Amino acid sequence: MAKKSTILVKLTSTGLNAKGNPTGTAYVKKRNPKKLTEKLSFKKFDPKAVTDANGNNSSEDNSSSDSSNGKVKSGMHVLFVEKKMPNPKAN
Length: 91
Hints:
Elements: E1 7-13, E2 26-31, E3 41-52, H1 63-69, E4 72-84
Antiparallel strand pairs: 1-2, 1-4, 3-4
């Protein structure tokens, strides 16, 4: 029986929520490490990521703009970077 050549990788969001914490949104993709040696990264929509009305990510140090403007828009396209999934047979 041939060994499986693809691995599962977890793409986690770099977006931040209103409190400045990571959103925790993730996608799972298959990757062949023999053909694609660099890490995956995609720009995808994160429904939990927050921007203010000016279009700036609220993760920047301008926390005063959120309180002064009052308008916060949730959902934006952010970069998702690869994190390796844990091996289920390692238990």
